[in-house]
C-alpha cells in the first residue's frame, strides 16, 4: 500500500450545496472533472452510497501523456464510499491498467467548507498509486477544480 497523499484546493463562488450538487450530477461531472487536455465520458452512474461511476478519460493528445488503460485513455471505476451533503464526499477510485504501478484503491475526499458567499473545496487523495506522478496529479486535481469553478460560476 502506498501512503502518499496529494492535495489541491480552490475557493468557488457558490454555496456548498451548489458545489455538492455538481459532484453528484452525471452531466456536470463529464463537463468539469476531466483535467485540461482530456475529455470524459461516464459509462455507469449510480449516485448513492455504495454506488459510483465508471469514467473513460481520453487524452486529446495521447503523444503528450500516454494513458494508463490504453495509449489514449484512462478508465477509472469510482465508488461513492461516503456522501455527507453538502460538506463531504468520499470516493474510492481504481484505475484499469496492466501496469502494477497504477494498481490499488485511491481514496479521494472532497471537503466543502462555506467561506463568505463561496465554498472552499479541498480534495485530498490518499493511497495514490506510485505510477501517478505527484506533481502531475496535483496539477490535474487543480485543473478539475478550476473547471468545476468555471462550470458552477457560469451557471450563476
Distance between the termini: 42 Å
Number of helices: 3
Give the radius of gyration: 15 Å
CATH superfamily, please? START domain
The tally of beta strands, per DSSP, is 7
CATH topology annotation: Alpha-D-Glucose-1,6-Bisphosphate, Chain A, domain 4
Domain Activator of Hsp90 ATPase homologue 1/2-like C-terminal: 14-153
Family: Belongs to the AHA1 family.
InterPro entries: ASHA1/2-like_C, START-like_dom_sf
Protein name: SRPBCC family protein
Question: Can you tell me about this structure?
Answer:
It comes from Streptomyces lannensis. InterPro entries: ASHA1/2-like_C, START-like_dom_sf. Belongs to the AHA1 family. This is SRPBCC family protein. The chain is α+β, with helices and mostly antiparallel strands. It has a single domain, classed as Alpha-D-Glucose-1,6-Bisphosphate, Chain A, domain 4 (2-Layer Sandwich). Helices cover 24% and strands 42% of the residues. It has a seven-stranded antiparallel sheet with strand order 1-7-6-5-4-3-2. The longest helix has 22 residues. It starts with a strand and ends with a helix.
In a few lines, what is going on in this structure?
Pfam families: AHSA1. The chain is built from 3 helices and 7 strands, in the order βααββββββα. By secondary structure, it is of the alpha+beta class.
Features:
single chain; 156 residues; alpha+beta; Alpha-D-Glucose-1,6-Bisphosphate, Chain A, domain 4; 7-stranded antiparallel β-sheet; SRPBCC family protein; ASHA1/2-like_C; START-like_dom_sf
Summarize the topology.
Elements: E1 5-12, H1 16-23, H2 26-32, E2 38-46, E3 52-59, E4 73-84, E5 88-96, E6 106-115, E7 118-126, H3 134-155
Antiparallel strand pairs: 1-7, 2-3, 3-4, 4-5, 5-6, 6-7
